[in-house]
Design brief:
Layout (H helix, E strand, L loop, with lengths): L3 E6 L5 H15 L2 E8 L2 H9 L5 H19 L4 E7 L2 H11 L4 E6 L5 H6 L2 H6 L6 E5 L12
């Protein structure tokens, strides 16, 4: 059913809720995981236009993706990574299409009221602009160890 699952990572504690869910789902369905983090700092957003060097933030994000991928691979799951640069919803949507993903997995933090009203949330922008199914896991809903063994 889901052959490739895009897992949108934030490089934060919310990922501890998301990773176990998608790892178990991928294990049961024989899916491949694509871990994606979108660096959205100034250097990341202007990287191509200004021919910038990779920032410390981007290097840390890449290292984080590699660490999570390594832990998941150690449990026997096939995992790819991609560090995207720019606007998170836009890059998640572009990556899902470009890499032929059948499911997008993300975390939800709940409503932030004023922030969501003015800026909108990443999850809302993604869900309104894709036909790819979305799995939403509430941040902070860890029910087991972040990286289960096979």
């Amino acid at each position: 059913m889901y052959q490739k699952i895009l897992v949108a990572l934030e490089n934060g504690s919310a990922d501890d809720a998301l990773v176990p869910h998608v790892a178990e789902l991928a294990r049961r369905l024989g899916s491949r995981l694509l871990l994606v983090h979108v660096a959205d700092g100034w250097a990341a957003r202007n990287f191509d236009q200004l021919k910038l060097a990779e920032s410390d933030e981007m290097k840390a994000d890449r290292a984080y993706l590699d660490e999570v991928a390594g832990r998941l691979r150690a449990t026997g799951l096939p995992v790819d990574t991609e560090l995207a640069l720019g606007n998170p919803p836009t890059e998640i949507l572009k990556t899902a299409v470009a890499r032929s993903c059948d499911l997008i997995a993300m975390t939800s933090h709940g409503h932030k009221l004023v922030g969501d009203f003015f800026l909108g949330s990443t999850i809302d922008k993604v869900r309104h602009n894709t036909s790819v199914p979305i799995l939403v896991v509430r941040a902070g809903s860890v029910t087991r160890a972040p990286f289960p063994t096979p």
